[in-house]
Write a structure and sequence with these properties.
Number of helices: 7
Main location: cytoplasm
Organism: Mus musculus
Keywords: Cytoplasm, Cytoskeleton, Microtubule, Repeat, WD repeat
Number of strands: 155
Pfam families: Beta-prop_EML, Beta-prop_EML_2, HELP
Structural class: mainly beta
Shape: flat
Function: May modify the assembly dynamics of microtubules, such that microtubules are slightly longer, but more dynamic.
Length: 1958
């Protein structure tokens, strides 16, 4: 029996002993069918307690660790561990997979939870971030994911009463989650003082936002919202592991072994202590509880499951037991009864009944048990222990007979001899000890040759010999009982063995794979009766082999279930069962053995899913006599589709070469040529490695592919239309059921599939991201909605797509060998079949994955390589064509029968309504009936059958057929030789198209006089083609060797051909018969050329580095050109026939003289003057520009110059054909490039009249014919030179505003940094010095004076409880655009500033706010579709910024989109239907993303441009077309499925137009697009071509454009001086031909508009300076609605001492006075310098302002006239104050000084004193109430007090304590230590202000937060309330005079916020 076939018998899993209780929780439930579901190892178990039966789910491939029950109580979700863990959802009735969720988690899936309606599933990963995911599990789609927590999460649960809310808990945390859009956001639970912060182990949600959770200390923590409201103490005395909620209430289970039941309000009902019951024991710990009606389930840490009936709660039933934690190795079966014994590291020995599936006895030992053995009569049991001792027990009462310890190391193997007289014990020390049973186990022998630990031992039948295996892989023999080694081979050979459990030896060598030395098979056991062997290995597999199993790499059957290591396998005494034990999963599996007679070659009727019963992957074949592969198939499997460089790598290469060569001075690059090319016709069809790639379209055209082109061929006109969307070889093609769309798949690193329309040739969808190397098979589903594709990666992945959306529905690994065909089931959209090398599999989609079953051959046939497959008309029939020529007929997965159809493989099959047509390697087409019972007709493809209308010749009779299709009364056939034929049903055949066969094509020559060319290829043929409208092959000749070059003689009569073996021939050009041949060289001939005119000489270049010159007339070699150091690549003659130009592989350009071959050195300048007959060389100064920047990778293979010397065509290794203007001097000339060939373009030639260019591709075998389009006649639809967009020289224009905006770097709050450069220790980190004179606690002294003067003593002291945002002055115009809109027919406007979205009512002026953003908002858009009224989208700066979509009226968030745009989102826009949203980021790639915002799904995403993109807008009538503009950037985008395709704007030859920086977009009818440029022009585009310019629409940049949807009028806004005719806002007609200008009355010299919006008769305008203005269209009157500061930080802020007014002073050089009550600007003054601080005088008459340049001014409030000014300092004035008695002015500066001025002396402002000893710059100053002191806070975090006006520092604490301050704005001092947060290391508290009532202090900080504290605030980290709105820095803050308002100013956001105090 030396065959390697798999055995015909099988195993079926019958029972699993065990339950996983350790490291898991909440994994035990009742199903709807009252069964119990749980898991153990890698198996999901459904246990029916009534019938005592188990069902198994085997879809996992590693340990299951989590389980959730669907609300319908039937579906189960399980999650596993592993490198790529997945989640299965399965049905507990039939244990079938319903859905698979994969490709997201790593390490493992720790928790699972279904939501209350069962639609969504939440999962938590075991990765470092404990990722939380939300799935639409039926679709297998990930909806959202987020970082869970930094530490383990133990439980997650949905809130059943609130949609989209979840709670998770774990190590020291609990989090409350909200799902909105695709954003999953968490808020941490607040433990507060109610309970200790501790680990929460489990939770359940209840009504009214209550959450119950079980804590580590045994308490129940009860939460309301986020806050811990109470604890139920001592619910358990130790950790609560499980909390179960049901209708009746709650059940909890804990580490204390108790179950407690609680009612729905969590009042206790009862308590059950399992430790106290009769099966209980000390240390019992409950991991899982479930309560259903009157029954409870409890799962314990030690793998037991208890069932308790509540009425009889003192009698729990133990319904399942298994071993506890610890490895399980020991297994033995009783020699006479169906009993098994196991022993484990849990120190127990257990006896199991195999017949009853029950534990009958358990015995606890002192030590871990590692091996067991029954004596032959079954009376005694020996146990080997971990400490090296062994124990013998009597079986009947489990009492000890002996306990012997002779060894130190663990005993891993022991066996009694068959006669019962000896016990052999093998230990890890190495020896085997032999003991005599009868002599009370006296040691009588020792076998000690092993150098390593003993793994297995077996006795001979007669008990005289022992064989051992050890850890070193040695197999040794000993005589018994002495232990003498036995070496004689003969003697060993004859020994019959009593048992076979050894893994080494000739009988079991087949269990080891070929060519490996592995040690991962732990155990085997032979069944002599049935000649089978069972094995268990480290991969969790149990396998069946034939026994004996002699040849390595034998086939087997394999069974899954154990997770990691199967430690032991044994047959039962009667061979009915196999038992296997799992190491880490410590479970025991009992398998039923189904002998061959029973299984009778037919697989079980219900093969288990997940390929559980499978023939193993590795052992695909059942038989060893697999025929060798057919040569064609063999050849095909060897093809390698890897590329050194993929097209996708080009941008990177360009980038790298840019970085390397950036030092090169930028010379003017040569211009691209005016003329262009159009691909007209391609000769070729890819048949040699593709199949089923030929179809009729709806219109009766033929569609197929060659190279990177899909061809739609018209039979009547013999013309081709070409789809050129691919950039590398197409490998597969399929047609939509309606026959109008086609899908094609290509080669690539990330291989793409295009779905395109055969009429328009437009790409409808581009599918990427899931295949590597290439896509080798495609098929549409029967309804045409889905597409399935198969990749060329190592696993041949299968991907199922919703192709219109471009989303993958499901994926799976296909097979390890190549898959040739995939087919969708016509009746069931979710079923597929694949065939390939030794493979047929039937697939069923399950959620995001597939389950598969292999074809089961039974006795009807055997496993073959399948080449084609088709579904029949009857429901479950499948027909597959095999490599043997047979057709296999399948029903479901069973093979019914086979039918012989062809000689050699059946490559093609096509199903008809009533039958099939097949084609094979034998070149015969056969028509069959619908069950392959009769062959109705055959057609042999022969030359004699060809009709006269054929467009070519058959290369040979009976070519191998690779594709067949029927339609239009014909059979269409594609052959391996690259021919396409149409067979009429009556017999005649027409050849439509043909090309070269497999092999590279290099040789190409154009006829000197006629439209004819010749090609020669490695396929060993020379072919002559006609190029007129006939496009056909005229002649073909087979050669003995492949050829690489050919050339016509000048008269066109002779044709020279150079071959690969160093020979060449000259043939007659008409008959292609030999004229002469030579063989002078060994290496291949690389180029061959006749000299001009008479063609006297023939030059022959070879890879031997020589060029031979022959005299044609005498047929002799006359000269040899030597001197090249490498192989010759190209040669050209000069026009006199005297000089040869030669290029070599070492990039040498050499010159030789004919006929002798003398070498000449010619200077470049001279060489340029020589007139050459032909130019095919690629070197020299006139070609320098054709080499690309990254030419170290790519080579230019060929070039050819037109006869007039103007146009040079080249072909390169990237598949590009390029046109250059000749001469091509200087580096990197511009060009036009064309795609079509796939990898290498090997040769290019112009036809004799220069009107046509011919190109051949190397491996793609194609001959392409391009027509030259002269400048005038061009169709302008050209892909122009790609390179030109990167040129530095054409900069896109300049404007200071745009330049500044480009340079803004958006950093975020996350990196919050101090806005001031402070130094020193933060106040809350300073150590306090204890002063000597601390007052005694009870002081007899007078009471301390107030800290703060109370201004309004009369009123009741009012405490401020809350702040509410009331109004914002500001609008972000300086770096945003189009961020201002009308709402509600012009009643409201919406805009943004800082982090606030603002809706302002125009009639009342009141504002409402959207404050959910966490940082500056950068963009805002309003949905224009009536269905989504008032829906607004905004987005922001941030490392992971979110887009918020919200309702402008209610301010409800409708959806949140977490983005990939790092740094921020700077533009968003809704599509025409309002359902899609496009966003663009400020990340380095400027990614453009399209979203389906309501679901929160990303539709597509792609890098937009390397520089800033300013605007991206959908066409107002489209959901797929949009336009982006930016820095030198103009792209027209199409959304195709889930891919974004773009066309660059083509400027063409318009005068005065060049690619500018574009700033804005508007749209017109008929596909018109208008873009505003930086120079003030508006460019008008039709499709993507520029058609005209609106010159100088504005004098400066056109920043904004608005298209009015209702009448199509366009508003533009830009930078312009207001004049009579011109203005910064203009209203245009629909075509932008006429306009009307509006002046904005802002008083600025140049107005700069950033945003416009048109309402009814009004235009809303936003300016760069932060104003919002409304302009009437009729009256042209402008009305300022919002006034804000311009760009620049606002630092100065002061509130009026008695009125509701305040002043703000900003770096924009203005000071503005505002009215708090009416919310409006009262007055403003331009100061001429940036202002830093401001202060009112106590009487409110004057205001002092300090400037950044050291100057200060005093203005009169009413007139804002200057009262006085002074400049005594050079650096910024930081704070300024007027004393309460109106006498002194204090001025604090950056020069570490405070200067005092006496105001009573009039406007001279003489300094009367100043403070010295200030350690750093001044930040805040406050006067005392009596004007005698001033407190100064400084940049060194120190506060000092000085006398006024002398400036002397006050150091006595006593004095300072007693001062009453007039105001408090200091952030320093003990009184305010509590305002400093813990996380202030990067950021500071900038400002503070205490209320006039002295009870509260409000602060502003670098995080943009306002915080409200009580005052004084002397405890560190005091409690506070926080308010958002500002973006990064709050610079200053003040209470109004009566504490009604707080005013705060922003740093970066240039906004003033007014808050109401409540």
């Amino acid at each position: 029996m030396a065959d390697r076939t798999a055995p015909r018998c099988q195993l079926r899993l019958e029972w699993v002993y065990g339950y996983r209780g350790h490291q898991c929780r909440n994994n035990l439930y009742y199903t709807a069918g009252k069964e119990v579901v749980y898991f153990v190892a890698g198996v999901g178990v459904v246990y029916n307690t009534r019938e005592h039966s188990q069902k198994f789910f085997l879809g996992h491939n590693d340990d299951i660790i989590s389980l959730a029950l669907h609300p319908d109580k039937t579906l189960i979700a399980t999650g596993q561990v592993g490198k790529e863990p997945y989640i299965c959802i399965w049905n507990s009735y039939n244990v079938h997979t319903v859905s698979i969720l994969k490709d997201v988690h790593t390490h493992g899936v720790a928790c699972l939870a279904f939501d209350s309606d069962g639609q969504h599933l939440a999962s938590v990963g075991l990765d470092a971030k404990n990722t939380v995911c939300i799935w639409d599990w039926r679709k297998g789609k990930l909806l959202a994911s987020a970082t869970g927590h930094s530490d383990r999460i133990f439980d997650i649960s949905w809130d059943p009463y609130q949609p989209n809310r979840m709670v998770s808990c774990g190590v020291k945390h609990i989090k409350f989650w909200t799902l909105c859009g695709n954003a999953l956001t968490a808020k941490r639970g607040i433990f507060g003082k109610t309970g200790d912060l501790q680990t929460i182990l489990c939770l359940a949600c209840a009504k009214e936002d209550i959450t119950y959770s079980g804590a580590l200390n045994g308490d129940i923590y009860v939460w309301k919202g986020l806050t811990l409201v109470r604890t139920i103490q001592g619910a358990h005395s130790a950790g609560i592991f499980s909390l179960y909620a049901c209708e009746e209430g709650f059940a909890t289970g804990g580490r204390d072994g108790c179950i407690r039941l609680w009612d729905t309000d969590f009042k206790p009902i009862t308590k059950i202590d399992l430790r106290e019951t009769e099966q209980g024991y000390k240390g019992l710990s409950i991991r899982s509880v479930c309560w259903k009606a009157d029954r409870l389930l409890a799962g314990t840490q030690d793998s037991e499951i208890f069932e308790v009936i509540v009425r009889e709660r003192d009698k729990p039933m133990l319904i399942l037991q298994g071993h506890c934690e610890g490895e399980l190795w020991a297994l033995a079966l009783h020699p006479k009864k169906p009993l098994a014994v196991t022993g484990s590291d849990d120190r127990s020995v257990r006896l199991w009944s195999l017949a009853d599936h029950a534990l009958i006895a358990r015995c606890n030992m002192e030590e871990a048990v590692r091996s067991v053995s029954f004596s032959p009569d079954g009376s005694q049991l020996a146990l080997g222990m971990k400490d090296g001792s062994f124990i013998v027990l009597r079986v009947r009462d489990m009492t000890e007979v002996v306990h012997i310890k002779d060894r130190k190391e663990v005993i891993h193997e022991m066996k009694f001899s068959p006669d019962g007289s000896y016990l052999a014990v093998g230990s890890n020390d190495g020896p085997v000890d032999v003991y005599a049973v009868a002599q009370r186990y006296k040691k009588i022998g020792e076998c000690n040759k092993s150098l390593s630990f003993i793994t297995h031992i077996d006795w001979s039948l007669d008990s005289k010999y022992l064989q051992t295996n050890d850890g070193a892989g040695e197999r040794l023999f000993y005589k018994m009982p002495s232990g003498k080694p036995l070496t004689s081979k003969e003697e060993i050979k004859g020994i019959p063995w009593a048992s076979w459990t050894c893994v080494r030896g000739p009988e079991v060598s087949g269990i080891w794979p070929k060519y490996t030395e592995v040690i991962d098979i732990n155990s085997v056991d032979a069944n002599y009766n049935s000649s089978v062997l069972v094995s268990g290995d480290d991969f969790g597999l149990v396998k069946l082999f034939k026994f004996p199993c002699l040849k390595k790499g034998a086939k087997f059957r394999k069974y899954v279930g154990h997770s990691a290591h199967v430690t032991n396998v044994r047959w039962s005494h009667d061979f009915q069962w196999v038992l296997s034990t799992g190491g880490a999963d410590h479970s025991v599996f009992q398998w039923r053995f189904i002998p061959e007679a029973v299984s009778n070659g037919v697989l079980e009727t219900t093969p288990q899913e997940g390929g559980a019963d499978s023939y193993s992957e590795e052992s695909d074949s059942d038989f060893s006599d697999v025929p060798e592969l057919d040569s064609d198939i063999e050849q095909e499997t060897q093809i390698n589709y890897d590329r050194q460089v993929y097209k996708e790598d080009l941008p990177q290469l360009k980038q790298q070469s840019k970085e390397k060569n950036h030092a090169v001075p930028f010379l003017k690059r040569e211009k691209a040529p005016e003329d262009s090319l159009k691909l007209q016709f391609i000769h070729g069809y890819r048949g040699y490695d593709c199949r089923n790639n030929l179809f009729y379209t709806q219109a009766g055209e033929v569609v197929y592919h060659i190279a990177a082109v899909a061809v739609v061929y018209n039979r009547q006109q013999h013309a081709q239309r070409l789809y050129l969307g691919h950039d590398d070889d197409i490998l597969s093609l399929t047609i939509h059921p309606v026959k109008d769309y086609v899908a094609t798949g290509q080669v690539g690193r990330d291989a793409a599939v295009h779905v395109w329309d055969t009429q328009t040739l437009k790409c409808l969808s581009l599918l990427k991201g899931h295949h590597q190397r290439g896509v080798c098979a495609l098929d549409f589903s029967a309804d045409g909605k889905c597409l399935v594709s198969v990749g060329l990666d190592d696993f041949h992945s299968v991907v199922f797509w919703d192709w219109k959306k471009g989303e993958k529905i499901a994926t799976t690994r296909g097979h390890k060998d190549k898959i040739f065909v995939v087919k969708c089931n016509p009746q069931h959209a979710d079923k597929l079949v694949t065939v390939g090398i030794k493979h047929i599999k039937f697939w069923q989609q399950a959620g995001g994955g597939f389950t598969s079953k292999r074809g089961s051959f039974g006795s009807a046939g055997k496993l073959e390589t399948m080449m084609c497959v088709s579904y029949g008309r009857m429901e479950d029939l499948v027909f597959s064509g095999a490599a043997t020529g047979d057709i296999f007929i399948w029903k479901d997965v069973l093979l019914l029968k086979t039918v012989k159809a062809h000689d050699g493989p059946v490559f093609a099959m096509y199903a008809l309504d009533k039958g099939f047509v097949t084609g094979g390697k034998d070149g015969i087409v056969e028509l069959w009936d619908d069950m392959f019972e009769r062959c109705l007709k055959t057609y042999a493809i022969k030359r004699t059958a060809l009709s006269t209308s054929s467009k070519g010749l058959l290369l040979e009779d009976n070519p191998s057929i690779r594709a067949i299709t029927l339609g239009h009364g014909h059979i269409l056939v594609g052959t391996k030789n690259g021919e396409i034929l149409e067979i009429d049903k009556s017999g005649p055949m027409t050849l439509l198209v043909q090309g070269h066969m497999e092999g590279e094509v290099w040789g190409l020559a154009a006829h000197p006089l006629l439209p004819i060319c010749a090609t020669v290829s490695d396929d060993k043929t020379l072919r002559i083609w006609e190029l007129s409208s006939q496009h056909r092959m005229l002649a073909v000749r087979k050669l003995k060797k492949g050829g690489r070059c050919c050339a016509f003689s000048p008269d066109g009569k002779a044709l020279a051909v150079g071959l690969n073996d160093g020979s060449f021939l000259v043939v007659n050009a008409d008959t292609v018969e030999d004229m002469l041949s030579f063989h002078h060289r060994k290496e291949m001939i690389s180029d061959i050329k006749f000299s001009k005119d008479t063609g006297k000489y023939l030059a022959v270049a070879s890879h031997d580095n020589f060029v031979d010159i022959y005299n044609v007339l005498t047929s002799k070699r006359v000269g040899i050109c030597k001197g090249a150091s490498s192989y010759i690549t190209h040669i050209d003659w000069d026009s006199r026939g005297k000089l040869l130009q030669v290029n070599s592989g070492a990039k040498e350009q050499l010159f030789f003289e004919a006929p002798r071959g003398r070498k000449h050195t010619i200077r470049p300048s001279e060489a340029e003057k020589i007139e050459w007959d032909t130019w095919t060389c690629v070197l020299g100064p006139t070609c320098e520009g054709i080499w690309p920047a990254h030419s170290d990778v790519t080579d230019v293979n060929a070039a050819n110059l037109t006869k007039d010397g103007s146009l040079l065509a080249t072909g390169d290794d990237f598949g590009f054909v390029k046109l250059f203007s000749y001469p091509v001097k200087g580096q990197h000339a511009r060009f036009k490039k064309y795609v079509g060939h796939s990898a290498h373009v090997t040769n290019v030639r112009w036809l004799h009249n220069d009107s046509v260019l011919l190109t051949v591709g190397g491996a793609d075998t194609a001959l392409m014919i391009w027509t030259r389009e002269f400048v005038g006649t061009q169709e302008s639809k050209l892909v122009d030179s790609e390179e030109s967009d990167t040129d530095a020289e054409e900069d896109g224009g300049y404007d200071s505003d745009v330049a500044r905006e480009k340079a803004i770097d958006y950093t975020t709050k996350i990196y919050a940094v101090s806005i001031r450069e402070m130094e020193g220790t933060k106040p809350h980190q300073q150590l306090k010095e204890v002063s000597m004179e601390e007052r005694p606690p009870v002081s007899r002294a007078a009471p301390q004076p107030e800290k703060l003067q109370k201004n309004n003593i009369t009123k009741k002291k009012k405490l401020v409880e809350e702040l509410a945002l009331d109004h914002v002055f500001g609008y972000r115009g300086f770096d945003c655009r189009n961020n201002l809109h009308y709402l509600n027919d012009g009643a409201d406007i919406i805009f943004h500033t800082a982090a606030a979205g603002i809706v302002q009512n125009l009639s009342t002026g009141s504002q409402s706010f959207y404050l959910e953003h966490t940082d500056d908002i950068l963009c805002l858009t309003v949905n224009q579709h009536p269905k989504y009224r008032n829906v607004v989208a905004t987005s922001q700066i941030g490392t992971t910024p979110s887009i918020h979509i919200w309702d402008a009226m209610t301010k409800h968030t409708l959806s949140m989109l977490r983005c990939f745009h790092t740094k921020g989102v700077n533009y968003i826009n809704f599509s025409a239907t309002g359902k899609l949203l496009v966003s663009v980021g400020v990340d380095p790639e400027h990614t453009i993303t399209v979203w389906r915002w309501q679901e929160g799904t990303k539709v597509a995403s792609r890098g937009g441009h390397l520089e800033r993109i300013f605007v991206v807008e959908f066409r107002p009538d489209s959901d797929t077309q949009f336009v982006s503009v930016g820095v030198k950037h103009m792209k027209f985008w199409t959304l195709a499925g889930s891919a974004l395709l773009y066309k660059k704007g083509v400027i063409g030859s318009m005068e005065a137009a060049k690619m500018q920086t574009m700033l804005s977009v508007a749209f017109g009818a008929n596909n018109l697009t208008f873009t505003g440029a930086i120079n003030g022009d508006v460019y008008v585009w039709k499709e993507h071509f520029l058609i005209r310019l609106v010159a100088k629409a504005h004098t400066g940049p056109v920043f904004t454009m608005y298209t009015t949807l209702r009448d199509g009028l366009i508003v533009t806004g830009g930078k312009e001086r207001p004049t009579k005719e011109g203005g910064a806002v203009k209203l245009w007609d629909q075509e932008m031909k006429r306009c009307r200008a509006f002046q904005l009355e802002t008083g600025q010299l140049v107005e700069c508009v950033r945003s416009v919006c048109r309402g009814k008769g009004k235009i809303l305008v936003g300016t760069k300076d932060g104003e919002i203005i409304e302009v009437g269209e009729k009256s042209a009157a402008s009305n300022i609605l919002i006034d804000g500061h311009m760009e620049g930080e606002i630092w100065g802020l002061a509130t009026h001492p008695s009125k509701d007014m305040f002043i703000s002073a900003s770096n924009d050089g203005t000071a503005r006075i505002w009215d708090l009550a009416d919310k409006k600007l009262l007055n403003k003054v331009n100061l001429g310098h940036a202002a830093r601080c401001a202060a009112y005088s106590p009487d409110g008459e004057m205001v002092a302002i300090g400037m950044k340049n050291g100057e200060f001014v005093i203005l009169l409030v009413n007139t804002l006239k200057v009262w006085g000014k002074k400049r005594d300092r050079k650096s910024a004035i930081q704070d300024i104050r007027i004393s309460p008695d109106n006498r002194f002015l204090a001025v604090g500066s950056s020069e570490q000084t405070v200067d005092f001025y006496d105001l009573t002396q009039g406007t001279s402002l003489n300094r009367i004193g100043y403070c010295k000893d200030i350690p750093s710059f001044v930040i805040q100053m406050d006067f005392s109430a009596d004007s005698k002191y001033i407190q100064v806070s400084t940049g060194a975090y120190k506060r000092q007090v000085h006398e006024v006006p002398l400036g002397k520092q006050v150091t006595e604490a006593m004095v300072v304590e007693k001062i009453t301050w007039a105001s408090w704005t200091s952030v320093l001092g003990d009184e305010v230590i509590g305002i400093w947060p813990r996380n202030a290391d990067k950021a500071d508290v900038n400002c503070a202000c205490v209320t006039h009532a002295g009870l509260n202090i409000v602060t502003g900080d670098d995080f943009g937060l306002l915080k409200l504290f009580d005052f004084p605030c002397t405890e560190k980290f005091a409690k506070h309330k926080r308010y958002f709105g500002h973006s990064a820095h709050v610079t200053n803050i003040r209470f109004s005079s009566d504490d009604k308002y707080v005013v705060s100013t922003g740093g970066d956001d240039c906004s003033v916020f007014v808050w109401r105090c409540l």
